Recover the amino acids of this structure.
């Protein structure tokens, strides 16, 4: 079965320091809206935000717009493009509340939610905001229970749940999401023993990255987990969220690398992301499609400039043509 590829993009929100030195917070928000509307106008499928509170690689007292507040606002200034989080941090909100937030967003957007969720990894941010940071095994257990609670609240009249980490007693979620049977669930993370098992059990979409060899290895691990839980691995679509920078000049690309939060050599950065000329990026997307990736959700390294986004949208159209 040939799957139609999905092309989305993160929009700027400040997490990666893209708004440092860029006007006032009002100017920054206006630019986020402009980029979201541009993404819709040029035909991309979805816009995405991160679920983080302060800047990386370290807190810098620069703007970071909050995930769900931002998504609610963007839903009202767009009309067709889908809205996602790559990925929500399960540690920051109880799943009963998250069911209400996600259901509300699906309704107010007219059924455009892609729900992204992960176990959480940013210990410094958790400590800074007063959230507990359990062990990896506990965080994955919490993720599994949270997905079960949210999906139950989306679809059942009431939810009573008694888990190791979460409990609910006749929890209501009204209104229900508009999408039927429910919004798509994207689970992010490539932990091979635990996270990918949760993906095998509950996800419609996986999200893990890396260079081609790393991507194929994660897919093989996911396939093994699917076999153990009795699920067809091909029923889970695979997505990739690399950085993207499209320029014809190698010198321009090397200059843009200085704005990346990834601390790696230029060669590794280029190998594991959508970095290069238009032709190089097109070829790499084709290679990942051949490996079974059908969702591309990059972060534009040149934000708040929109050049990479616009060229990416042009490339995306070539993959949709019959």
């Amino acid at each position: 079965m040939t799957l139609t590829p999905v092309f989305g993009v993160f929009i700027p929100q400040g997490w990666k320091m893209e708004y440092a030195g860029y006007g006032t917070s009002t100017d920054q928000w206006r630019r986020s809206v402009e980029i979201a509307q541009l993404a819709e106008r040029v035909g991309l499928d979805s816009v995405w935000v991160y679920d983080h509170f302060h800047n990386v690689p370290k807190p810098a007292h620069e703007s970071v717009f909050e995930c769900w507040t931002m998504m609610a606002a963007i839903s009202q200034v767009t009309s067709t493009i889908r809205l996602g989080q790559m990925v929500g941090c399960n540690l920051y909100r109880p799943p009963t509340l998250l069911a209400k937030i996600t259901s509300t967003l699906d309704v107010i957007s007219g059924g455009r939610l892609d729900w992204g969720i992960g176990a959480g990894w940013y210990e410094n941010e958790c400590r800074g905001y007063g959230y507990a940071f359990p062990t990896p095994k506990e965080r994955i257990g919490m993720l599994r229970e949270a997905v079960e609670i949210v999906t139950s609240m989306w679809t059942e009249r009431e939810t009573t749940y008694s888990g190791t980490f979460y409990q609910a007693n006749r929890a209501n979620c009204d209104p229900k999401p508009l999408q039927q049977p429910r919004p798509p669930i994207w689970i992010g993370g490539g932990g091979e023993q635990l996270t990918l098992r949760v993906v095998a059990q509950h996800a419609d979409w996986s999200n893990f990255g890396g260079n081609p060899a790393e991507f194929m290895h994660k897919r093989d691990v996911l396939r093994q987990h699917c076999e153990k839980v009795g699920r067809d691995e091909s029923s889970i679509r695979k997505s990739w969220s690399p950085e993207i920078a499209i320029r014809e000049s190698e010198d321009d690309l090397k200059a843009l690398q200085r704005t990346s939060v990834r601390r790696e050599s230029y060669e590794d950065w280029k190998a594991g992301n959508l970095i290069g000329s238009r032709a190089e990026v097109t070829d790499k997307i084709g290679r990942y499609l051949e490996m079974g990736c059908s969702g591309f959700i990059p972060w534009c390294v040149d934000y708040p400039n929109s050049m990479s986004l616009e060229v990416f949208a042009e490339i995306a159209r070539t993959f949709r043509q019959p």
Q: What stands out?
A: The longest strand covers residues 113-118. The longest helix spans residues 136-155.
